């Protein structure tokens, strides 16, 4: 049976959801619940860390699709980070890199939520 | 009808290895289904991680579609899987007795449109088509049997130990 865990931790202004194991039609509901509970708590700056995710199917990708518009409408985002080549391949095949920001590592994704990023640059 | 004979000489005398297994129509079986398919491919020398992932993903998508749509998640129903594996060609057949649905005639909407309408499904079929070289569907209403056959052809990158030639590239 597929094993899948979501480990959530706050970092600066964002919440990091670290995925572990196999994300398929059997386990996608766990991710859906994890993201929904963040949104219910008004946590809308989310970084999903894929480093320890071994496998993803369209059911997993569907979870991100189901939430992305609402989260952006509320001023937040879901940024994706640290995918293995085979997991990235699945996102790429469906054209997800056009819809989502995908970063090489978690720190880079988090930096996009940094307070300085939404502050106007000082006048020269 | 190009350089293929050079490759077939490598595999002559080694007919496809065939495995059959029946799975319950339950999403918690997907992990076992993927393992079954990957083992069958590895057994005949397929080793490229991305290719193996593509094969198991296509089968996962096809089987979860059957479980959800053909059988309505009725776990008393079953799926029959048959793998025919050779070095140059990997084929998997999925049989069910549920509601017929031909994925080869279905036209999935583009992903941005699915996202706009919050449609989480519909991507599985797009994936199957992009991941596999041949997708064939047959439905026999008299026997109420549906059969989906997915085929992946060898690519030089998929078998690094094989001599790299352009035989397959030339066929496409």
Overview of the molecule:
The complex is a heterodimer of chains A (124) and B (172). Chain A has 124 residues and is α/β, with parallel strands linked by helices. Chain A has four helices and five strands; from the N terminus they run ββαβαβαβα. Chain A has helices at residues 28-40, 58-73, 85-93, 106-111, and strands at 4-11, 14-23, 45-56, 77-81, 102-103. Chain A has a five-stranded mixed beta sheet with strand order 1-2-3-4-5, with helices on both faces. In chain A, α1 runs parallel beside α2. The longest helix of chain A is centred in the middle third of the chain and has 16 residues, at 58-73. Chain A starts with a strand and ends in a 13-residue tail after the last helix. The mean pLDDT of chain A is 92. Chain B has helices at 4-11, 30-43, 49-70, 111-116, 123-131, 167-171; strands spanning 17-24, 78-85, 89-96, 134-140, 145-153. By secondary structure, chain B is an alpha+beta fold. In chain B, β4 (134-140) and β5 form a beta hairpin. Chain B is built from six helices and five strands. Chain A binds chain B through residues 1-2, 22, 24-26, 55, 57-59, 61-63, 65-66, 68-69, 85-86, 89-90, 93-96, 98-99, and chain B through 27-28, 30-32, 34, 49-50, 53-54, 56-57, 60-61, 64, 67-68, 110-112, 114-116, 118-121, 123-124, 126-127, 130-131.
